[in-house]
Amino acid sequence: MTATLYFSRNPNPRLAVAVSRHLAAPVRYEWAAPLAPGQAENFRHLNPSLRLPILAEEGGSLWEADAIACRLSQMTGSAFWRAGTELPDMIRWISWAHDNFMHACDIVHFERGTKLRYRLGPLDEALVVRGLAEFHENAAILDAHLRRRDWLLASGLSFADFRMATFLPFNDVALLPVTDYPAVTAWYARLMALEAWAEPFAGLQAPELPPIA
């Protein structure tokens, strides 16, 4: 049975698709909208929170992008999800991304992007200011690290790089000042040189996100 990766164009599903395509994983891709009217019961047995991405395999399903990336690396025999002595360092950067760099990006992206796409209320400028302050604080730390190497881990590209960059493909609406940080800018250019990262939905049926209101 071929695994199915249910996805949308939102940040975490995009991340899962990019990982899968980077690894050439043996999965079938299916765009989904579990929160759309009438769709919930089609997906609740796969993920009770009705959130994407979801990886469905014979015998069960897996949700959360990090777990799916780990599973896809297992499926393909790839070291993209590190093992052994490098695993703690990779987990360190994934954890730091969630609580710091990504968190800051998410605050700003939610206000300038998600809220306006899905008409969730007016933009909160105070939250944008807070998110930008957190972005500068954490981008400075990331920039200092990336001045010494091309990727987060000394051994090269890993899932930690993909995870750290989760919100940057949406910077056309978030308008985070990434270019203030040359090493971060160069690192992200290296990611954008990877076809799977730059164009994860190429050839897939994937409706565009709603326009910014």
The number of helical elements comes to 9
Biggest sheet layout: 4 strands, mixed
- What's the number of extended β-strand segments? 4
Please report the distance between the alpha carbons of the first and last residues: 42 Å
Order of helices and strands: EHEHEEHHHHHHH
The percent range for helix content is 40-55%
Strand proportion = 5-15%
Shape: globular
Average pLDDT number: 97
Radius of gyration: 17 Å
Structural class determined from secondary elements = alpha+beta
Lateral strand order in the biggest sheet? 2-1-3-4
Low-confidence spans: pLDDT under 50, at least 5 residues?
Answer: none
Please give a handful of descriptors for the protein shown.
213 residues, alpha+beta, 4 strands
Structure description:
By secondary structure, the protein is α+β, with helices and mostly antiparallel strands. The chain contains 9 helices and 4 strands. It has helices spanning 11-22, 40-43, 65-76, 87-117, 125-146, 159-164, 171-174, 182-192, 195-198; strands spanning 3-7, 27-31, 54-57, 60-63. It has a 4-stranded mixed sheet, covered by helices on one side. Strand 3 (54-57) and strand 4 form a beta hairpin.
Short structural summary:
The chain is of the alpha+beta class and 213 residues long.
Layout of helices and strands:
Blueprint: E1 3-7, H1 11-22, E2 27-31, H2 40-43, E3 54-57, E4 60-63, H3 65-76, H4 87-117, H5 125-146, H6 159-164, H7 171-174, H8 182-192, H9 195-198
Parallel strand pairs: 1-2
Antiparallel strand pairs: 1-3, 3-4
Helix pairs in contact: 1-3, 4-5, 5-8
